[in-house]
Every structure is written in structure tokens, then in C-alpha cells.
Design goal:
- It contains 15 helices and five strands.
- It is an alpha/beta fold.
- It has two domains: 4-84, 434 Repressor (Amino-terminal Domain) (Orthogonal Bundle); 116-339, 3-Layer(aba) Sandwich (Rossmann fold), CATH 3.40.50.300.
- It has a five-stranded parallel sheet, sandwiched between helices.
- Helix 13 (289-299) links the parallel strand 3 (275-281) and strand 4 (310-316).
- The longest helix is centred in the first third of the chain and has 21 residues, at 45-65.
- The relative contact order is 0.13.
Length: 343
């Protein structure tokens, strides 16, 4: 719950008017004013709980943009939001060699999984995996949001391991152990397609732009590109265009306008060959406002009709939803399917 005294003090110390802060978090001037009054000016507790994430995100963004140091940001947000903000940290502890020998374990069961067969899964997580696979097949726009440690990265890695083709390696038909998380589970559509598709040798790290892929009738190839950017906050639309073109075997044009036309032509060529491309971003909550807005343009790359050339898969933390609630991101929020893997 929002501490009205700390919130009012925050607005005063930051020289923020209720109107200006309301514009930042998508709330009316009256609502912001009432949040700084005793009993929140008569706002119902349920409504206050519902808007708390977007108020918290607006406070955090304002403090970061004004150059407030991290420790001070943490203290201010804790004062305003209390337990709603205070993060719970669970530190990782590795089993020692002595522990492994005592319990007769060949390896640490809590270490990072080495293959898809090591992953823990539930029917709910399997359903999310199927939704992600469908987004790859049909060029969807999907976002998985969960706290740290909930398994977003493992879910992404599982999706990548099941993908039919990766530009970094030749296509290999997965074994039944790699295609299923648990023994007896139904093979994913991506894995089943891979089992009936020939191996493609296109050379290390690239797709040959002048080569037409003969995959046989009725086969749908899929490529998932998952860039590992060192700092997501500094990623630009131009950088994404250049990355995708390079991964698809083309040298990007210097002009962003020409490079985007080049990308659209390349994606159209692959689409006509029944090759579907998806772009996967981790830590989407760190993407800059400009780049987040630009994702709409990537999603809408297509023939001008119903065909889309590029699917987008985002993975991030729950406070990203508060950012999506801001008015300036309405066009993104209305197109993005948000998945919460936690019950």
C-alpha cells in the first residue's frame, strides 16, 4: 500500500506537480492528489492496490532519469511502497564435493540444466511453451513476465533448443530426450517438424542470401534469433535492424531507411520459402522508451495484408506491465499478449 505521507514528500522534493506526475503514470491529476492525502482521499483499497505497480514504475523511472543513485532510489521507493517494493532475494548455494559424495550424487541437482531433459515442468509451463511455439509459427507478439528466479531464461532456452533451425548451427533432428521435458510427454510441434526435415548446411553463422532452401513440401522452417546485448537500455532500432540482417547473411545498408527496406525484402524472400523468423529479447523491461515504441514497427513488417514477416518474443520482470499501462505505450500494449507463468 502507498504511504501517503512519503508519496506527498516525494512529489514535493522532486518538484513534481500532480498533473505532471499523472501524465507520467497514466492517472488523473485528481487521483494523484488523493494518493497524497490521508486514507488516499477516499480511494478504495482495491483501486489503490491495482494502480500501485504503475505509480511505483513512474516513481522509479523519474528517479533514474534525474540521476538519483541506486541506493537512494531503493530507499525512497521502500519508504513509499513498503513491502510492495522490498525485493526478496534468495541466494544460490552450491553443494560441496563432500555433500555430493555423502548423498552419492553424480552432480549438483541444483546446478544449471545441461539439457531440456533436466528441466522441471508443470502442465501450466508446458502450456506457456506451446503458446510461445505458436507465436514463432504465426509471427505473434508475446511477452512472458515473471520475477527473478521464476524460470524465464530456462523457458527461453527450452524454446531455442526445440527450434528447428538456428543460424549459428546446422539443423539437427532432436532426440526424443531433447524434445520432451518429461518421459512420455508429447513432442512439441517444433521438434516434430525437425524430425521430418533434412539437415541444412549453409555455412557457419549465416544464411546464404542467394540460396533458396528446398525443405520439401509441407515443411515449415523456423529461425529464432536471440541477441545477447550487454546493455538492453542502449539497444536501438538501428542496432536491431543491423543485427537481424547480419544474422540472415546480409551486410546492412548505412542508411536506416534503406536498411529497413533491405530487411523487409529479405524477410519477404524467406517468408515465400516458408521460413518463419522470430526475434527474442531477454530483459525487455530495460529497453528504452524509443526502442520499445519501435517494436511496433518491427511487428508490423509484412506484405501489407495479413502476412507478417517477424515474430517478437519478450521476456522480462513483472513491473514491465506498469510501464505498458502508460499512455505513450498504448499502441504496444494493445498488440502485446502478456503471459504470467505464475499462478
Amino acid at each position: 500500500m502507498i504511504n501517503h505521507i512519503a508519496f506527498k514528500k516525494f512529489l514535493t522534493s522532486q518538484n513534481l506537480s500532480t498533473r505532471r506526475f499523472g501524465d507520467q503514470c497514466g492517472l488523473s491529476k485528481s487521483t494523484v492528489h488523493r494518493l497524497g492525502q490521508p486514507d488516499h482521499g477516499g480511494l478504495t483499497p482495491g483501486y489503490v492496490r491495482r494502480i500501485t505497480p504503475q505509480v511505483m514504475e513512474a516513481c522509479r523511472l523519474h528517479l533514474e532519469q534525474t540521476g538519483t543513485i541506486a541506493d537512494a532510489v531503493h530507499q525512497i521507493l521502500t519508504n513509499i511502497f513498503g513491502d510492495d517494493f522490498t525485493p526478496m532475494t534468495i541466494y544460490k548455494h552450491a553443494l560441496t564435493p563432500e555433500m555430493l559424495r555423502f548423498f552419492r550424487l553424480p552432480r549438483d541437482p541444483f546446478a544449471a540444466p545441461r539439457s531440456a531433459s533436466d528441466l522441471f515442468t508443470t502442465p501450466a509451463l508446458d502450456e506457456i511453451s506451446r503458446q510461445l511455439e505458436e507465436a514463432v509459427r504465426c509471427q505473434g507478439f508475446v511477452c512472458v513476465l515473471a520475477p527473478v528466479g521464476a524460470g524465464k531464461t530456462m523457458m527461453k532456452n527450452k524454446l531455442l533448443s526445440a527450434a528447428l533451425f538456428s543460424p549459428k548451427s546446422n539443423v539437427q533432428s532432436p532426440t526424443s530426450e531433447e524434445s520432451n521435458v518429461t518421459t512420455g510427454a508429447q513432442a512439441s510441434p517444433l521438434a516434430m517438424d525437425a524430425q521430418r526435415t533434412q539437415t541444412l548446411d549453409l555455412g557457419p553463422g549465416t544464411l546464404d542470401p542467394d540460396r533458396t532452401l528446398d525443405l520439401g513440401p509441407g515443411t515449415l522452417d523456423r529461425i529464432i534469433l536471440s541477441p545477447a546485448f550487454a546493455d538492453m537500455s542502449r539497444v536501438t532500432a538501428a542496432g536491431i535492424v543491423a543485427y537481424v540482417l547480419e544474422e540472415l547473411g546480409e551486410k546492412p545498408r548505412r542508411s536506416l531507411v534503406l536498411a529497413q527496406k533491405q530487411l523487409e525484402k529479405r524477410l519477404a524472400d524467406l517468408y515465400r520459402q516458408n521460413i518463419r523468423i522470430a526475434l527474442c529479447f531477454d530483459e525487455c523491461h530495460r529497453v528504452s522508451d524509443t526502442t520499445l515504441t519501435a517494436l511496433k514497427n518491427f511487428y508490423e513488417l509484412g506484405s501489407g495484408g495479413f502476412e507478417r514477416y517477424l515474430g517478437l518474443l519478450l521476456f522480462g520482470q513483472p513491473h514491465f506491465t506498469a510501464r505498458l499501462a502508460l499512455p505513450r505505450f498504448r499502441e504496444i500494449a494493445e498488440r502485446l499478449a502478456v503471459i504470467d507463468p505464475l499462478p
